[in-house]
Amino acid sequence: MRVLSIAKRLIKQLRGDKRSIALMFVAPVFVMYLLSAILTSATTTPNIDIISAPEAYVTKLQSLANITKVDNEEIALNNLKDKSIDAYIIFNGNIPKITLEGADPSITSLVMNTLNKLSTSSVMLKPEIVFLHGSKDMGSFDSMAPILMGFFIFFFVFLIAGVAFLRERISGTLDRILATPLKRWEIVLGYFLGFGLFVAIQTIILQVFSVYGLNVPMVGSFWSVLVINLVLASGSLALGTLLSAFARNEFQLFQFIPIVIVPQIMFSGIFDLRNAPAWARILSKIFPMTYGAEALRDVMLRGKSLMDVKNDLLMLLGYALLFLTLNTLALKKYRKA
Amino acid sequence: MSVENVIKIEHFKKQFGKSVVLENINLSVKKGEILGLLGPSGSGKTTLIKAIVGMSEPTDGIVSVLGTKMPSLVAVSKIGYMAQSDALYEDLNAYDNILFFSSLYGMKRKEAKKRADEVLELVLLKNDGKKLIKDFSGGMKRRLSLAIALVHKPEILILDEPTVGIDPVLRIEFWKEFERLRKDGVTIIITTHVMDEAEHCDRLALIRNGGIIAIGTPDELKEKSGESTVEGAFLYYGREGEVKSI
To answer: Edge to edge, what strands does the sheet with B211-216 contain?
Structure first.
């Protein structure tokens, strides 16, 4: 019953704190929207200047790139310098010489891909391409969206729960409630339940926005994704309250973000770790976010069921339980019994 | 269980790291007694109080409350505690603060509501129950803290500087309430800096240099020291204490 008292009090407190509510419910949606705007930019065609080239070459290239004919290399070089073109081509007899800007790898590979198409399309037959999951239209945002969604839930829950628990300690109320018959685990669990409600709302908002607003691909069940997100959020909720025990003020709590939170997104599958050094792969296995990301991708992109990702879910639950236990132990600093 | 001594402290020692705050403290408090703890700031009054409330464990020695060795969750439910700094939830109103704490003591909702009205009336905050704590003045917060300490009708009341920031009129009201509680058999331990408050206590313990340098009724202390006021006695024993420690 005391657990529920704590939870109820937290809900009452947060309801009066409009700014925190806004941070919880609006901020993740906002950031998710910005990222989708950046990452879903349509596939572009490169801008290429041609100084001299065989007629056949130019016509072929015209279907793949925006071509401008210029008179000499100097004009082309200037265009390249002010970034109005991505490359220029000059033929030296039969051999084309291609000059690229080269500072942006994504543009470089775009130009290279375009020119490769030019040389292969005539020689080979068009292969038949089959996708096991996803499609050729799937952009990088689509494939990252499940991870990003999970990460923002993880991050914002960590922040709000950590600060709330910290405030309880700074204001002296933690000391005060420990002078009542309240047991340590009851506080921890009360916090867990009280914030759990807000986390659930936050998760639903972000998930509905991502799936129906941003049209993130969703092959699996909406409810399975919700379960994974909630389990993931439990882990971060527990982690936030645990780490706040080691911070003396908000500033110190925020110092945990670059150490504990940022690496989680880097190692959770956003970047391909297959060729990374062994320690990096081991590190990724330590972070709870990795299991959440894996499960979310499996369900959203590959249409797997909760049973298929049960190992990831168990890991996440294990982490949540571990953090909650550690938090209860950390409170021993305040009262032994 | 001895009915007489509600609180018993034997060979109490508390140290933080290497610095010993209190050492060899022996103290018994009888049922229905008001014991005043006097001492300069930093002398360890709050440290002693936290051990009685069960918030910290002694480095050495035993603290027992109502026959139970502290820290104990059973004994804690019979203690009303008012901390030195007001530990209230600023985003909640006074009423919700009281209801929250009463629920921690396991009080039923209906009973808690009735009791909340009673204690709010007692500390003259009846008309401010729906006000948020962030809009409270310092004195109002102090009064609410006392109301919360009283909500579960504790047998023992531990008050850490309860009258700081409270105007003289209200202070008299507070003391009237303390004396009323004493008549009902409530045992009260109170720390204070205010010497005329000390006169109201049944017994006084002077804490200095990590120990109790004198204990007795206000009259006894005045008599033994040959001073006419408690303040004089306090200063007298303080000098004595320093001489002893050299």
So the answer is: B79-82, B156-160, B187-192, B34-38, B203-208, B211-216
Of A175, A181, A336, the CB nearest to B83: A175
Distance from the first to the final alpha carbon of chain B: 40
| Interface contact B81-A173, CB threshold 8 A | no
Say which residue, B82 or B71, is predicted with more confidence.
B82
Whether the predicted model's global pTM rises above the 0.90 cut: no
B164 touches chain A (CB under 8 A): no
Burial class of A181 by CB neighbour count within 10 A (0 to 12, 13 to 18, 19+): buried
Cβ pair A173:B105 closer than 8 A: no
Nearest chain A CA: its distance from B203 CA (Å): 25
pLDDT (tens digit, 9 = 90+) per residue, B160-206?
888 887 888 888 888 888 999 999 999 999 998 777 788 888 998 88
Exposure class string for A226-242: b at 16+ Cβ within 10 A, else e: ebbbbbbbbbbbbbbbb
Cα diameter, chain B: 59
Q: Are B128 and B51 in contact (CB under 8 A)?
A: no
Backbone angles phi, psi at A189, to 5 degrees: -70, -35
Is A63's Cβ below 8 Å from some Cβ in B?
Answer: no
Helix (H, G, I), strand (E, B) or coil at A98: strand
Q: Among B197, B178, B200, B196, which residue's Cα sits nearest to residue B188?
A: B178
ipTM score: 0.82
DSSP conformational letter for B134? G
Burial category of A211 from C-beta neighbours within 10 Å (exposed 0-12, middle 13-18, buried 19 and up): middle
Q: Please list every residue in chain A whose beta carbon sits closer than 8 Å to the beta carbon of residue B72.
A: 337
